[in-house]
Amino acid sequence: MKVYVIEKGVYSDRHVVAVVETEEEAKIICNGISPYPEEVNYTEYDTRQFATNRLRFHVNEWSNEWEAEYDDYNFYSAYKNNCEESIGSYVIYANSPQQAIKIAQDMKAEKLAKEKGVSL
Predict the structure, then answer these.
(1) Residue 75 domain flag
(2) CB 14 within 8 A of CB 5
(3) Are 6 and 42 in contact (CB under 8 A)?
């Protein structure tokens, strides 16, 4: 289910005004509160995002060092499945940062094997 969280204010004054079920309701409330978009806005959230108990991580490999960061800003929302976003950078769905790194390492190993002509 998608919900729309309406917030008013900026920085430390930012606070939730309402949560509604349709985008139309969100727009009406935002326009009613203030005609200035910088003062009030809404964000769409999918309440089923965590139903699979999988979180979205951005995993990077830097000089054989791996790190995984939870995607709490929805930067990678366009990706619905595990993928290599760019060389050494992966978008991974997993239950923990450690699991995300392991999945990314496996993806890299599989890619290297294919490049070398090794079939798995």
Answers:
(1) yes
(2) no
(3) yes
Whether 85 and 105 share a structural domain: yes
In total, how many domains does the chain have? 2
Model pLDDT for residues 48-71, shown as the tens digit of each residue? 766 666 889 999 999 889 999 999
Q: How far is it, in rounded angstroms, from Cα 94 to Cα 99?
A: 6
User: Structure pTM?
Assistant: 0.60
Residues sharing a CB contact under 8 Å with residue 24, sequence separation 6 or more, in sequence order:
none
Q: pLDDT above 70 covers what percent of the chain?
A: 94
Looking at residue 12, what DSSP letter applies? G
Residue 67's domain comprises 55-115
Look at residue 120 and tell me if it is in a domain.
no
Q: Are residues 36 and 61 in the same domain?
A: no
Rounded Cα–Cα distance for residues 82 and 93 (Å): 6
Phi, psi of 46, rounded to the nearest 5 degrees: -100, 115
Residues 17 and 68 in one domain: no
Q: How far apart are CA 44 and CA 96, in angstroms?
A: 24
Pairing mode, strands 89-94 and 55-62: antiparallel
